[in-house]
Predict the 3D structure of the following.
Amino acid sequence: MLTLETFKLDWDKLFPDVRLRRSHFVLAVSGGVDSIVLAHIMHSLHAKCTIAHVNFQLRAEESKRDEQFVRDFALQYNIPIQVQVVDTEKYATTYKMGIQEAAREIRYAWFGKIMQELSADVNKNSEDQQLNALSPKPIPVVLLTAHHANDQAETILMHLFRGTGIHGLTGIPMRRKDVLNIARPLLNFTKEEIKAYAKANGLIYVEDSSNKKDNYSRNFIRNVIMPQVTEMYPNANENIVATAQRLKEAEQIVLATVNDFWNRGLKIKKGMLSVSIAHWQKVLGNYTYTWELIKGYGFNASQIEEVQKILTASNGAYIASNTHQLMKWGDQIQIIDKQEGGAYLVIEQMAPIVETKYGKLHFELLEQFDMEHISKDTNTAYLDAHKLTWPLLLRTWSSSDYFYPFGLGKKKKLNHFLSNFKLSPTQKNRTLVLCSGDKIGWVVGKRIDDRFKLKSNTPLTLKISWQELG
């Protein structure tokens, strides 16, 4: 049962870090029964609040009616209000997204702006009190939304039907403190309990006519599926929500195990974050392990199978997201950040020219090359083609690199080798190495590796020319 007392008890248990009397709350109020009840409760508990209402202009006169209703409600209870009127259809068309996605993006971006402004304002006005405190803390600004238990059940079913991992089955989070500071204090209460509170307190509210239409997936689940399910299982809503709570607990156990596995497997190799194929293959086919690794690198759940295929693909095979690239190189899967400034290019055997951000490489295969014609230009390299393993890899050098400089006859750390050239920090950072397998064949523009040098009987020579930009 939803009352001021049960709400307060639930609040103290769920949000011990948010004090009702010392926080400022932004209330997302549409005018429907859920948000009106939430606003009434917060007002009755004497919490400092600001109502935020978005008029999405999707329902013509009805949208105007809702806006005016919320304005009148705020005036009646003397609660400050901010309203945003936006052309949602135009926004969706401009940014090529669905109406529901556009509406969500619009409202949360605006809520964030309001919260920033309020945070600056309420903390500026409270400076005097804070100066007198022994350990002053800023007043938190928290966004409250009126999601309830029925919303939770619908969301979980939507995720289940679309396909999801364990996290999707945990539903709407009760609390978030990432991009926005959000709490959802009605999530444990049902729609029926919320309506009963409204009736008991004589609250009026508006109905969104679009909620009765089944053209949105959530409405279809709400209006068609759930009524049929609850006929057979009267406690379906409560059971789904209870299961989600148990899954949240299970998720923490799973994540601890999975994160420990990857923390033991991820290493820095040649300056590149990598995981050995042997380590990954311990859980090959286990989608949970793979998903927990790749989701932080811009990949989506539909790419899990393609990602796992990389482990048994040919050398140099890769799969890319918008931000990262997973590449098989030797016995490792390398995780390449595409946003970083370094170079990292796979070179196939038939590529005559390869362009990088720093310059161009020209490749030419020569048969029975006469060593007397070797150019002394350090921007040209001649390597024994039969000793090379394709594809080659062109990358920025790493502090852990070493090679066998031609003419020296022994191994040398590349960092120490480059120190002899008195390069500026910029020049040193831009130094590239051309790799064959796990060996450096050429420090581009500087020196080849002795292991790939030509001999008098070398049948096939790879000539490489480097043309630096600017």
About this structure: The chain has a mean pLDDT of 90. The chain has three domains: 4-243, 270-337, 344-468. The first strand starts at residue 24 and ends at 28. DSSP finds 15 helices and 22 strands in the chain.
